[in-house]
Amino acid sequence: MPGKGKILLMDDEQIILDMTRDVLDFLNYDVMFAKEGSLAIDLYKQEKSAGVPFDIVILDLSVANGLGGKETIEQLRNIDPAVKAIVSTGYLNDPAVENFSQYGFCAKLTKPYTVKDLKNLLESVLKK
Q1: What pLDDT is stored for residue 11 in this prediction?
Q2: Cα separation values, 127 from 11, 17, 56, 70, 108, Å
Q3: CA Rg, the chain, in Å?
Q4: Which of 36, 43, 44, 55 is most buried by a 10 A CB count?
Q5: What 3-state class would DSSP assign to 1?
Q6: pLDDT string in tens for the chain (128-residue length)
Q7: Please, is 39 exposed, middle or buried when counting C-beta atoms within 10 Å of its C-beta (0-12, 13-18, 19+)?
Q8: How far apart are CA 118 and CA 70, in angstroms?
Q9: May I ask the CATH architecture of the domain 6-127?
Q10: How many CB atoms within 10 Å of residue 86?
Q11: Under 8 Å between Cβ of 20 and 118
Q12: CA distance 94 to 34
């Protein structure tokens, strides 16, 4: 597999997708994108059934149109109880951020984040 791992990034903001793609490319990760949760779930199923599953899924907590992170992680955990998912948001006082593990996430990524923040978090999650 190219890079250090395969990442699925779900976010409804194009600028976040573009910037994070550049960072993940720079960090040598293979990355795919979804604008909302149902698309992320479809991609996850597709790649898993093709034998090339994602190592980490990064889910935006709230999206304008479609499923957000909380709804998406519930469905992903039904498909794959071992899914490694990171909740990403700028809303720090949401219960899904404060108590991320209770919602099925293994880590949180607070927006705005730096290249170093993302790099360190991904390396930490991959080791779990």
Answers
A1: 94
A2: 24, 24, 11, 23, 15
A3: 13
A4: 44
A5: coil
A6: 335 899 999 999 999 899 999 999 999 999 999 999 999 999 999 999 999 999 999 999 999 889 999 999 999 999 999 999 999 988 878 888 889 999 999 999 988 888 999 999 999 999 98
A7: middle
A8: 20
A9: 3-Layer(aba) Sandwich (3.40)
A10: 23
A11: yes
A12: 22
Place of tokens 């190219």: 2
Q: What's the pLDDT at 29? A: 95
Residue 38 burial by Cβ neighbours in a 10 Å radius (0-12, 13-18, 19+): middle
Which residue from 1, 81, 71 is spatially nearest to 41, judged by alpha carbons?
71
Decide: helix, strand or coil at residue 87: strand
pLDDT of residue 64: 87
Residue 43, pLDDT score: 98
